[in-house]
Amino acid sequence: MGQPLATPRETTDHTPVTFPAIVYAHLYKKLGTRDLKGATNKRLRHLDPEHPGVDAMADAYFALHADMNATAHLTVEHAELAAWVLAIHAHGRPSKKLQGQLRTAIEETLREDGVDPAGDPSLNPTIIGWSLGQRAHTELGDTIVKFVLDYPDDTVTKAYGELVTHTLQLVEQHHTERTEMNLSAILVRLMGLMDALAGWPGRSAEAQRILEESYQDETGPIRLSYWPDFLEVVHVRNAITHLNSGGDPSYLEATETLASPKGLLKVIDAARPVVAWMGAAIAVESRSDGSAPHDLWEDVRIELGL
Q1: How far apart are CA 44 and CA 53, in angstroms?
Q2: Per the domain annotation, does 145 fall within a domain?
Q3: Residue 131: beta bridge partners?
């Protein structure tokens, strides 16, 4: 049985997301439970009519976990295949419950192995909108996420990657080094990404409504902590990009908001729904049976000895 390894690393927009074997073991085990098993096995049979099924996948990854260092990463092919399988469930209900169950199961196994998963993003996978991913920074929780699969539009993919990179740079800075201009830039990036996902350039208020209607079932309700509602985020962006437009707030009020000690928290909070919709959009776009990654399955099949 092969043991392909990838070097654990910090998540950036330049490197793929990878996980240790135990993550896949418990993910496939969860996908083999009653409510998810039928659709999961049907998905796997699109890869190979003779596929041994989701239970065999889980067993193979548990065996691989037992044979190797608990935190050693497998290659990206394993992550991409798992993300494609997971995406078939992107309809009708949010994925947050599965994410919590998966993390709990991983933690219980690793603690039995004497490993503390706290602080390691690769041992705390995200499932946002049924897209598999990884926290981009431990301090940001599930707010800023690097997804395994890309959205099928190079411009949107690049914009999202740069948004993640830009946000991480600001998080690493001392608060005295963060400028209102940098925070404004992230806010503008967020609104641009929202408009692009909804196919409605420059109309963020309408784009929000479109995205909510499109992906609410997958993301679940998204409540902001530092804004009364997302429309206020749109208004602040508009005040920055449309000077003296007579809107509320004014440009001066908007820039003062971002220059406040809570400026970074407000911007990161504003990113939460956009990241959630990004995850749901990726999963929905990946659901097509015609997207079956047969080459990935062949590589993974050989490495798992199936």
Answers
A1: 7
A2: no
A3: 128
Do 206 and 91 lie in one domain? The reply is no
In the numeric block, the tokens 């928290």 are attached to: 265
Q: Label the pairing between strands 126-128 and 131-135.
A: antiparallel
Q: Are 180 and 114 in contact (CB under 8 A)?
A: no
125 shares its domain with 167: no
DSSP three-state, residue 20: strand
What would you report as the CA-atom Rg of the chain, rounded to the nearest whole angstrom? 20
Same structural domain, 157 and 281: yes
pLDDT at 289 over 90: no
Cα 109 from Cα 104, distance rounded (Å): 9
- At residue 275, the pLDDT reads 95
Eight-state DSSP code of residue 117: -
Distance (Å, rounded) from C-alpha 160 to C-alpha 156?
6
User: What's the rounded mean pLDDT across residues 47-59?
Assistant: 96
> Helix or strand or coil: residue 33?
coil
The answer to whether residue 4 is domain-embedded is: no
- Residue 221's pLDDT is 85
**Which residue type occupies 45?**
R
Q: What is the Cα 111 distance to its own chain's centre?
A: 25
Q: How many domains does the chain have?
A: 2
> How far is it, in rounded angstroms, from Cα 293 to Cα 197?
24
Q: 84: number of CA atoms within 13 Å, CB side? A: 22
What gap in Å lies between CA 119 and CA 242, rounded to an integer?
A: 41
Q: What angle do CA 169, 79, 87 make, to 5 degrees?
A: 100
Same domain, 98 and 60: yes
pLDDT at residue 8 greater than cutoff 50 = no
Residue 251 lies in a domain: yes
Cα dihedral 215→57→121→128 (10° resolution): 0
Which residues form the domain of 156?
Answer: 150-285
Residue 282 DSSP SS3 = helix
pTM of the model: 0.91
pLDDT of residue 6: 39
Look at residue 1 in the predicted model and tell me its pLDDT: 39
